[in-house]
Amino acid sequence: MVVEESQSTFVPIGVSQYQVVIQVHQEPLSYYRADKSLDETTQPSPAIGDIMLASYGGGAWKAITVEHLVKTP
């Protein structure tokens, strides 16, 4: 996943938890079988707006949930 953009104003939603609007896209992926043969590849996805609920603790950010702002086909 590549983060294209994020909202700089973090909205607090609880103790050490924040709501952030982000825009991400998925890079192409390749899936391999146990015998190392190629099973399938995916195409890159377009950038999509998401809303993420995240927490900060122990010196690191952790995504709690990430949901699309609009339904994708």
Description:
The chain has 73 residues and is mainly beta. The chain has one domain (2-32, 39-68). It is built from no helices and 7 strands. The strands form 2 sheets. Strands 1, 2, 3, 6 and 7 form a 5-stranded antiparallel beta sheet that branches. A hairpin with a 2-residue loop joins strand 2 and strand 3. The two termini are 19 Å apart.
SSE inventory with pairings:
Elements: E1 2-6, E2 11-14, E3 17-25, E4 30-32, E5 38-41, E6 48-57, E7 60-68
Antiparallel strand pairs: 1-3, 2-3, 3-6, 4-5, 6-7
Overall, the morphology is elongated
How much is the average pLDDT?
83
Rg over CA atoms, rounded to whole Å, is 16 Å
In helices, the fraction of residues equals under 10%
Decide which structural class fits the backbone. mainly beta
Number of distinct helices? 0
Q: Indicate the proportion of strand residues.
A: over 45%
Order of helices and strands: EEEEEEE
Determine the oligomeric state from the structure: single chain
Can you give me a brief rundown of this structure?
This protein has 73 residues and is mainly β. The chain is built from no helices and 7 strands. The chain has strands spanning 2-6, 11-14, 17-25, 30-32, 38-41, 48-57, 60-68.
Keywords:
single chain, mainly beta, 5-stranded antiparallel sheet, two-stranded antiparallel ribbon, 7 strands, 0% helix
